[in-house]
Automatic annotation (TrEMBL):
Residues 676-723 form the UvrD-like helicase C-terminal domain. The keyword Heme does not apply. Keywords: ATP-binding, DNA-binding, Helicase, Hydrolase, Isomerase, Nucleotide-binding. It catalyses: ATP + H2O = ADP + phosphate + H(+). DNA-dependent ATPase and ATP-dependent 5'-3' DNA helicase. Has no activity on blunt DNA or DNA with 3'-overhangs, requires at least 10 bases of 5'-ssDNA for helicase activity. The keyword Iron does not apply. ATP binds at G369, T370, G371, K372, T373. Belongs to the RecD family. RecD2 subfamily. Residues 163-252 form the ATP-dependent RecD2 DNA helicase-like helix-hairpin-helix domain. GO terms for molecular function: 5'-3' DNA helicase activity; ATP binding; ATP hydrolysis activity; DNA binding; single-stranded DNA helicase activity. It holds the Pfam family AAA_30. This is ATP-dependent RecD2 DNA helicase. The gene is recD2. GO terms for biological process: DNA recombination.
Length: 799
């Protein structure tokens, strides 16, 4: 009997009585391409639970299950809402055939290619019922049976491989790896998996996406690996750069900062890794093509390449010929579009449409309400008329729709589809990337067709834009639309900002606001903030905005008063949106949500129906935010809805949420897709607008107080803006321009390097470096900007 394999470590399962099943695999219904998860049909031989049928479906993480082979399973019988009763397998083992007949059938099965019944009989008659164990421990027992060497190899390989793989999966599970990551590890190292992990767990952090330095370090400690082991330094270097990308949004780190941060990371009980040693490993990693050094900047290789690829493709696109649009024809086209859309474009808007019609690649940028969406509509109409195309997708039954309209988020794609009646997709979907695909891989994709429009470009990061632009054929005309003053992308880089700043792409900047009426003071405030000032009348009450002074601990009370008054005046929960820059603190999202829930959705009876999700209480009437894209339900990350029902279906409870016209039912496993939405972060509010915005800014938010955050927040208000907090916090925010992430896309596009590339270490850390008196050149910018590279120039490991 093979060793038992514990694949699941779910403590809950121990409380539930276990079900035992012995049976052979009748078929494999589903095999996850990127994990060990499988759904199989089992012919039941024995079972100790209530099941009368001949077959049962079993699910779980399995190695190479062989159809026809017999296994023994232990698990729980669950009731799947769609597929009914099935066995959720926790552990399983192969039941080796013990009868002579069983063994003969096994050896003559299709698993052993080239072994027929006669040969099988010979093996079993000679070796007996222990045949499998005997072969597994000593291949030579097959000699003298008249088998060819090939046949002997086949039998031995099949037996040891399936046994080996099961052992590896069990080992990975014992080290705490879940089924998806385990599959990724096994795919990479195959039969060497366990020896690699035990000898050098840092290899995992270097090679396997989803395994970080911390996990590898934890394993290494288990195996007693030294603190200055070379692989530990390598993994530390990659960890620091990745963290740097996530925390700063920069696309490179200055070498000196890198070495110091790695040194801090690797310190164990006051012992530091020699800086020179870290520098050596930086060079080693560069030689292995994992990182690139350029001047005194260090990049992950994919990031370095991404900037180069973007710049190269932009240059190729801008070198394409302009489309000829004679002035007379354009007048006719725009007149027709204006008639159809029922709008009169202003001069800048017309210019934007003409620019995009003519240029192989163009940019339209402007603040909220400047008409970007209205321009996309007009542009689509004029483009279609100019190229004699229909904008009706139904007309393209035999060919591709020639227009690709895309946005970085599902919500933005949905919105642009609704406004233009032209189908839009997320960029991921357009590129055919699913959640598991890596954006940093070099896999080639191809987008052809006449036109690509990307909306909400400010939210697109380097990795995604590289994929998109690399896939775009040079025959495609590209239009990039967005608001460059909004927050940059969540991922590293500031592509849209850099493309505009580089001046390489014909760009039209829109300044006239059409959304709010001309006497709107919100627009004036937005303009002032863009220029880095708070207007003199900032604290005065206006028809559409007000300011209330409040310390952090007064914020809740003032918001309560404002919300009460607004609700008395007929504003709904959906109309009023509170925004906060941070989650923590007394004026942060989490605290305000709890408070606002009591005000905006007070329980109407003593014991209302409620469901606890994490530490939040959900009740009917609660305003909730969708946290992930769920295209199958037509709801997307950032969508806001209201809980309209809580129902029990059998033993399960469900939450029903109404999003505009879409109602979505959430079963327990999906509840963590929701959070309360009375207050949301300013980041989450990007791309949405609300009738009334209430936004507190206090000095407590210190590092979040940035101009583009303030700008993004206030421009979400379509009619009323209530600001509160400390005026000095607003002043700090307006003065603090944080958008300039350190990137080199402009350098790649123009050959001009503008940014200050000096160290980002604070003074304290710099002093520490000086004090350490380590003789590496990195600590002195004047001597040599490279990391103790011992005569190796950065060009030695550049592309
Ligand atoms: N030339 C125009 N004349 C009259 N109204 C206009 C004009 N251009 C745009 N508008 C109106 O102004 C409002 C804002 O326009 P639109 O939604 O296109 O702006 P936007 O830049 O896409 O805004 P946001 O980025 O906030 O979504 C809409 O109601 C639109 O109909």
């Amino acid at each position: 009997m093979a060793e038992e394999i514990n694949l699941f470590r779910n403590n809950d399962t121990e409380k539930v009585s276990q079900a035992h099943l012995v049976g052979s695999i009748a078929g494999i219904f589903f095999e996850s391409p990127d994990s060990f998860f499988k759904v199989v049909l089992v012919d039941v031989d024995e079972n100790d639970f209530d099941w009368e049928e001949d077959q049962i479906v079993a699910t779980g993480s399995f190695a190479d299950l062989q159809e026809g082979e017999s296994y023994s399973f232990i698990g729980r019988v669950v009731n799947h809402p769609k597929y009914g009763q099935q066995l959720q397998v926790e552990t399983y083992s192969r039941t080796q055939p013990t009868s002579l007949d069983g063994l003969i059938t096994y050896f003559s099965s299709s698993v052993f290619k080239g072994i027929g019944k006669k040969t099988a009989e010979k093996i079993v008659n000679t070796l007996g019922t222990n045949a499998i164990d005997m072969i597994s421990s000593d291949k030579s027992v097959l000699k003298g049976l008249g088998l060819s060497t090939k046949q002997q190899d086949t039998i031995y390989d099949v037996i040891s491989q399936s046994d080996g793989m099961e052992k590896i999966i069990a080992g990975l599970s014992a080290y705490g790896f879940g089924s998806t990551i385990a599959a990724r590890i096994f795919k990479k190292y195959q039969e060497k998996t366990l020896s690699i992990i035990e000898e050098d767990p840092y290899q995992l952090a270097i090679d396997i996406e989803g395994i970080g330095f911390k996990k590898a370090d934890q394993l290494a400690r288990q195996f007693g690996i030294g603190f200055d082991f070379a692989s530990r330094i390598d993994a530390g270097i990659l960890h620091v750069i990745n963290e740097w990308y996530n925390n700063t949004g920069n696309t490179y780190i200055v070498s000196k900062d890198l070495v110091m941060q790695v040194s801090n990371l690797l310190e164990v009980d006051g012992q530091n890794v020699d800086l020179e040693k870290i520098a050596d490993q930086v060079i080693e990693l560069a030689k292995k093509d994992r990182i690139v050094g350029d001047d005194n900047r260090v990049y992950l290789k994919w990031m370095y390449n991404a900037e180069l690829i973007i710049a190269g493709k932009i240059k190729l696109l801008t070198n394409q010929k302009d489309v000829k649009v004679p002035a007379g024809l354009f007048k006719k086209l725009i007149r027709n579009a204006e008639k159809k859309i029922n709008v009169k474009y202003d001069d800048t808007q017309r210019n934007a449409i003409l620019n995009s019609l003519k240029s192989p690649i163009s940019i339209i940028t402007g603040g909220p309400g400047t008409g970007k969406t209205t321009i996309i509509k007009g542009f689509l109409q004029t483009y279609a008329d100019l190229h004699e195309l229909s904008l009706d997708p139904n007309q393209y039954t035999d060919s591709h729709f020639p227009i690709m309209l895309a946005a970085p988020t599902g919500r933005a794609a949905k919105r642009i589809t609704e406004v233009t009646n032209v189908p839009a997709k997320t960029i991921h979907r357009l590129l055919g990337i699913n959640g598991n695909d890596s954006l940093t891989s070099d896999e080639e994709l191809e987008l052809s067709g006449g036109l690509l429009i990307v909306d909400e470009m400010s939210m697109v990061d380097v990795a995604l834009f590289k994929k998109l632009i690399q896939a775009t054929d040079t025959s495609v005309q590209v239009v990039l639309v967005g608001d460059q003053d909004q927050l940059p992308s969540v991922g590293p880089g500031q592509v849209f900002h850099d493309l505009i700043k580089s001046d390489c792409i014909p760009t039209v900047k829109l300044n006239n606001v059409h959304r709010q009426s001309s006497d709107s003071t919100i627009t004036d405030l937005a303009h002032a903030i863009q220029k880095g000032q708070l207007p003199e009348d900032f604290t005065q009450n206006k028809s559409d905005r007000s300011f209330f002074t409040a310390h952090a601990n007064q914020v809740e009370d003032i918001i309560e008063q404002v919300v009460d008054r607004a609700m008395d005046r007929g504003f709904s929960k959906a109309d009023i949106q509170v925004l906060s820059p941070m989650y923590r603190g007394s004026a942060g999202v989490d605290q305000l949500n709890k408070h606002l829930q009591r005000i905006m959705n007070p329980p109407l009876q003593p014991n209302p129906k409620k469901i606890m999700v994490r530490d939040q209480e959900f009740r009917i009437g609660d305003k909730v935010l969708q946290l992930v894209n769920a295209p199958e339900n037509n709801v997307f990350n950032g969508d806001i809805g209201e809980i309209v029902g809580m129902v029990s279906k059998g033993a399960n409870q469900h939450i029903i949420v109404n999003f505009d016209e879409t109602e979505v039912t959430y079963s327990k496993t999906d509840w963590n897709q929701l959070t309360l939405a009375y207050c949301i972060s300013i980041h989450k509010s990007q791309g949405s607008e609300f009738k009334m915005i209430i936004m507190p800014l206090v000095n407590q938010f210190s590092r979040m107080l940035q101009r583009n955050l303030l700008y993004t927040g206030i421009t979400r208000a379509s009619s009323f803006l209530i600001l509160l907090g400390e005026q000095s916090a607003y002043q700090t925010a307006v003065e603090h321009v944080a958008s300039n992430r350190k990137t080199t896309l402009i350098l790649r596009l123009t050959g001009i390097y503008e940014e200050d590339s000096s160290s980002e270490l604070d003074d304290g850390q710099n002093v520490k470096v000086e004090e350490s008196r380590v003789k590496v050149s990195i600590i002195n910018n004047n001597v040599d900007p490279m990391i103790g590279m011992k005569g190796i120039s950065p060009y030695d490991f550049m592309n």
